[in-house]
Structures are given as C-alpha cells and as structure tokens.
Write a structure and sequence with these properties.
heterodimer, A: about 425 residues, alpha/beta, Rossmann fold, 2 domains, 7-stranded mixed sheet, about 45% helix, B: about 290 residues, mainly alpha, ABC transporter involved in vitamin B12 uptake, BtuC, about 70% helix, about 5% strand
Chain lengths: ~425, ~290
C-alpha cells in the first residue's frame, strides 16, 4: 500500500502536533500542577448522631480554608477541602479515606470528629506513613502508638487520666474531704475511657466507689439511674455522658433532688448553646469539663475574630450559635497543619511529622505543643462551673462569669461554689 | 441496694416509661400489626412530630403537646398520601415485601435529611412549665415530663381502642388484614380503609414525637435508636392489639426500670429483650395475639 502526498503531509502534521503536545506538557506540566490547590481530605459526621459536632467542625474548617486562601494559600497554592459524610458511622471511615487517598489523591488528611471515627482510619494512615491530625479523639493512640498522629483536643499526655484530673484535683481541696464517689456513663468509647480515668483517680485519692455503672444508648428515662445513685449517698457524682443523656441525667437529678457535693465531670452537651439555653438555671453549680469559655484568662489572639466569623454563619448552617466548644479546635487542627506546611515548605509527610513533633504552634486556642504520643504536651482540659445563670437567654452565656474556670491553675478565673446540693 | 421506696419509684418510673413506649408503638401496631405494612420509617415520623412541636413551641410558645395535637390532621393527611403512593407503586403489584421495605427505608432517610436541611443537626429542646417539675405521693416522686406523656398515651390508647371496637370504620380496619373479600362484601373499600388506618398511624406517631421532645432533646437521626424497641413491643403485644401494645410497653418499661435501678442500666435492654424472647417462645403469637 502506498501513501499519497496529501496523506504524508497529514501524517507528518499529526506526528508534529503530538511532539509539540508532549514537549508542551513536559514544559508546562509542573507549572500547572503547582497552580492546583493543596487538597485536604477528610470524612466528617454531617448526618447521624454526631452531625451537630461534625457540621460545626466543617464550618470552622471552611473558615480556615477561606482565611488561608485570603492570605495567599499554602506554598503559593490555594487550599481546598475534600470531604465526605461518614454518617457518624465508623464502618464508613476506611472506605472514605481509601477513596480520598487513592482516587481523589489528596495531599493532606485530617480526621473526622470523635474517637469512634478516628480509630478506624488509623490503620490506613499507618500503612501509608501519613501525618494524621485528629479532632477530639480520646486516647486513640494508646492502642496504635503511631508516631505521626496528632490530636488537637487538649486532653494532655495521658488522656484517660487528664480528662478527669481537674474534677478530682478540685475534690481533694473540699473541706471536709469527700469519701465516696458514684461513677456513671454511657456504654460507648469516650465514656468508658473517661470512666477508666475517674476510677484511677478515685483509687489514688482513696475514694470509695459506691456506684459504678454504664447505661445503653437510647435510654429514655434516667430517673431510675439517678435514684439508684441517690440511694448510695455519694459525696461526688462523676458523669461521662453524651448530649441527650446529659440533659436527661441533669433533669432527673433536679426532679429527684440529687444530693452531692460535686456533680458533673465529663458531661458532653452542656457546652452547647442550644442545650444551655433550655436548661438555664438548672445548670447552676454543675462542674464540668470544657475547652474554651469566654473568660478573661482564655483570651487568645485570633479567637474572637474567628468566633465572629463563625457566629455570623452558624445560624444559617443550623449549628451551635456560639461555637465555643469544638469549632475553635476544628480551626486549629488544620491551622497547625497549615503552619507546618508553610514552615517546612513541604508536603512530605515525614518532614511534616517531624516538624509538628518538634515545634510549638500559635493557634486560635493558644499555643499548642504535642507530646510524644501526639496528644497535647500538657493538659488543658478545663474544669468550669456554671454560676449565676438567671434565665434561659443566650446572651448570658457569652459573658465572663457564667462558666468560671476552676482548673488548671494557670487559667483559673473564679472559685468553686459548693456543695452542689446537700 | 434494695429499699421499698426505691422499688416503688422504679415501678412508677417504669409505668411512666411504658406509657411513652405505648405512644411511640401504637402507630406501628396499626400499620404493621393491622395493615401488614412494614413501616420502618415510623420512628422518623415520630422525630418529625418532635420537630413540628419544637417549631410551634419555639415560634409561638405553644405547649408542645398541644402543638402535637394540633398537627395530627396534617400528619393524618401525610399518612394517607404515603399509603396511596405505597399502594399504587408496590402493594397493588404484589411487590410490597422487599420493594415496599426499601420504599420505607428510603422514606426514613428522606425525612431525616429534610430535617437536617431545614433545622440543621443541633439538638432541639422545648419549653413547658411542667418540664423539671415533680409531684410527690409520699416517697414516690413523679416527674411531670414523664407523667404528661403517660396520661396522653393512656388517653390515646383508650380512644383508639374505642374507635376500633365501636365504629364501622374502626371495625373495618380491624378486619382489613384478615379478610379483604369479606370486607368488600360488607360494602367497604379495603384500600380506602387501609389509607385511613395509615393516616391514623402517622397521626399517632406525630403525637408521640411531641411527647418525646417533652422528655428529652431530639436530633434528626435519633429515630433509628427506637426501631428495634418499637417493633419488639408490637410483636410482644400481639401484632395489632391496641391493648396488647399497652401491656407489652408497660411490661418492657417496668422491666427496664427495675433492671436499671437494681442491676445496672446497661443490662436493661438485654433483660427486656430476653423477656421478649421468652414470651414469644411460650406464646409465639404475642401476649394478645390470636
């Protein structure tokens, strides 16, 4: 078969075009790639039981991405968040991160919200040696001992113990010294960890544990539980509960007239404005953990600017209108990652991991330094007490003095009002 | 620790809890027990009822239970509409067993996602003067936020039982799952009867939702937690017996409360479901089934 002159010309033209395209791609490829955004991938609870926290966290992360891009991005590139709804279901997590890493090919990964949704992602991160920033996981790394895991919740180097350290440190100062303790918590990962810590503190303080029980999810009425606690006449009641349980236990305690010198400890949900504004004065006297409250001792650079941006959009997003509890930390855990990328000028996970281990970070929740196990080098789980709550208005919870800090010493802003009820 | 006042309080708390369980289960007793419609979206409609009560309470300060009552006609209409779609798409073609189940499963997600889109995912609570108040009878304390739902559930049960026993349409609903042909010969249209019954089922779900938000906070996906318990009560009660549902719910409530008080709350569901298995082994048709 012979070719005509026209066919030869077309063949040469095609070959020439292919060569030009190949050279062009080689010359321009890296430049085009550098203009691509740095993609931060994660799963987040946008539906299901943890969605209230997950959506608030996402909002904070979007504010960080916007702030970062407004400031010129990272390594001169914009940042983009790539996320999927894990539906609050741990079973969805491995699939989400596999997709993020294999198909979406994200540059950086961070966790979704909560212990139950961080743990299933850990084996994937470990197998690929990736830096993994955790959002509110309690003692996750105790099982994995992974070098490149960093967790933003200020639980401290020994999370199980540090979580309730404030409650028991304060109990030690009461006069007369308390002798008996009741522990109650949900049948779930976080509560079990918190209860382990509480038992250890009780043993160290020679407190007699007179009630130690868990309750299942979907418990409707907490009156029988609180009555059983009341029957043991404890001096202290330590509760490790989730939001609906916290409300149920608190209401039952008020209805029954629970008597204890200190009551609270690890009640999730009492930090949310939607719950605070419905419980109102019922909250007075409760001592509970928290991570940030509008007290003068916790006025970190950038926190008020962040909260102003968050609160401006929280209403439309249907999330916590004040956003004191989780959102500043959701902003901070990507802030740490961003600062590490800028400081090292690298997206290499080994370099990033080493940098995060060796440096302190300035974030909207103050200075953050990680210990060897990826938890905060020093605990900053605050123990706060609700005081002077007069009604159910939202505004009073934005004022200093409504939740005074009692522990740790460095951040104290008030004194304990006790007993809770006797 | 055992004391008689603890025992008395545990029994009273269990009875009140059982009243609430009754309210949540009655709709499914009608839909699943009487109409053979496996409405697994039932708890999602309970939560929708909670949000309706919340919306009215937050906007106008209306009592959540009254708000729930006011919206029962709307839920009745929604129920009628859903049954029409279900009947036309699945039941009439004989596809209701698996595809119908998928339909209600999908409906559950639609309701949940719709609530998230409209209200967000934050926990919602209501205000009412009786929330937080307790009435005492000697050493027995009765929390009003449990007593009000119990009283309403009792009224609802009696009203439904009377309706089913004393009215033509009520008896038609009782008969529709037994013999459609006989019902047609009596001059009633089985599809219309089922439509009406499904509407009633959804109306009771909405009222139960109003009671739920009086008891505690709700969020859109909370309904999933109740699916197992609600079906268990309907089966234990005898699949379609209104009185049986009340007795089964009270039994489960009291068993849960006693277990939570004396043996530890984490055992409560295990003991309650153990009782269900035992009861079904002895009486497979349920306590009041035929």
């Amino acid at each position: 078969m012979t070719r005509t002159g026209g066919e030869r010309i077309r063949a040469w033209a095609l070959a020439g075009a292919l060569i030009v395209a190949t050279i062009g791609a080689a010359a321009w490829g890296p430049g085009a790639r550098a203009a691509d955004p740095i993609r931060v991938g994660f799963g987040m609870a946008l539906t299901g039981g943890l969605a209230a926290a997950g959506k608030a966290a996402l909002l904070a992360m979007e504010i960080w991405a916007q702030d970062t891009n407004d400031a010129g991005g990272l390594l001169g590139r914009e940042v983009a968040l790539v996320y999927y709804d894990d539906q609050s279901n741990p079973a969805n997590v491995p699939g989400i991160y596999t997709k993020l890493l294999s198909i979406d090919q994200v540059d950086l990964v961070v966790s979704g919200y909560g212990t139950n949704l961080i743990a299933p992602a850990m084996p994937i991160m470990m197998s690929r040696d990736l830096v993994f920033m955790g959002l509110f996981g309690l003692a996750v790394n105790e099982q994995f001992d992974y070098d490149n895991y960093f967790q933003i919740m200020p639980a401290g180097p020994d999370p199980r113990l540090d979580w309730s350290r404030g409650f028991f440190s304060l109990a030690e100062t009461l006069a007369p010294k308390p002798k008996t303790l009741a522990i109650v918590g949900a049948d779930a990962e976080f509560s079990r960890n918190a209860m382990i810590g509480a038992r250890a503190h009780a043993e160290a303080a020679a407190l007699e544990i007179v009630y130690d029980r868990t309750y299942p999810p979907a418990t409707v009425d907490y009156s029988p539980i609180v009555r059983a606690i009341q029957a043991t006449k404890p001096n202290l009641v330590y509760v490790a509960s989730y939001p609906p349980d916290s409300v149920g236990i608190l209401r039952a305690a008020k209805e029954i007239g629970l008597k204890a010198r200190m009551f609270g400890g690890g009640m999730v949900g009492l930090q949310y404005a939607s719950i605070q504004t419905k419980l109102g004065p019922m909250l007075n006297g409760i001592v509970n953990y928290d991570f940030w409250v509008p007290e003068p001792t916790l006025n970190f650079p950038g926190i008020n600017e962040f909260l102003a941006k968050y609160q401006a959009v929280a209403g439309d997003a249907g999330v916590d209108p004040l956003g004191y509890y989780l959102p500043p930390y959701a902003y901070s855990y990507v802030q740490v990652l961003g600062q590490a990328v800028e400081a090292t000028q690298s997206l290499d996970h080994k370099i990033l991991g080493a940098y995060i281990h060796g440096h302190e970070f300035d974030t909207v929740v103050g200075k953050v330094e990680f210990g060897a196990n990826g938890e905060w080098a020093r605990t900053r789980v605050l123990l706060v007490q609700f005081q002077g709550i007069e009604d159910k208005s939202l505004e009073q919870f934005t004022r200093p003095g409504s939740r005074v800090v009692l522990y740790p010493e460095e951040w104290v802003s008030g004194t304990l009002d006790y007993p809770y009820a006797e | 620790m055992f004391t008689f006042d603890l025992l008395a309080n545990a029994i009273v708390a269990g009875v009140l809890l059982g009243g609430f369980y009754t309210a949540v289960s009655l709709g499914l007793t009608i839909a699943f027990g009487r109409l053979d419609v496996v409405n697994i979206a039932h708890p999602a409609f309970v939560i929708l009822g909670s949000y309706t009560a919340y919306m009215v309470n937050a906007a106008f300060g209306v009592d959540p239970v009254l708000a729930g009552l006011a919206f029962t006609p709307a839920f009745f209409a929604i129920g009628v509409g859903i049954y029409r779609v279900y009947h036309a798409s699945f039941e009439r073609r004989g596809d209701e067993s698996l595809r119908g189940l998928a339909f209600f499963f999908g409906l559950m997600f639609i309701v949940e996602v719709a609530l998230i889109l409209v209200y967000g995912v934050d926990y919602r609570l209501v205000d009412a003067p009786y929330i937080g108040a307790t009435v005492s009878f000697g050493f027995v304390g009765v929390p009003m936020r449990m007593l009000v739902p119990f009283a309403l559930a009792l009224i609802m049960t009696i009203a439904l039982q009377q309706y089913f026993v004393r009215t033509f349409m009520g008896r038609a609903i009782m008969a529709v799952s037994q013999d459609r042909l006989a019902l047609q010969l009596m001059g009633a249209d089985p599809t219309r009867v089922k439509q009406l019954a499904f509407g009633i089922a959804l109306a009771t779900a909405s009222l139960a939702g109003a009671m739920l938000i009086v008891i505690g906070p709700v969020e859109p996906s909370m309904g999933r937690l109740y699916i197992g318990r609600v079906f268990a009560i309907v089966v234990l009660g005898g699949m379609g017996s209104v009185g049986g549902t009340l007795i089964a719910a009270l039994l489960l409530g009291v068993i849960e409360s006693l277990t939570a008080t004396f043996y530890g709350p984490s055992w409560a569901p295990a003991v309650a479901f153990g009782f269900l298995l035992f009861a079904l082994a002895v009486r497979p048709q349920g306590l009041f089934g035929r």
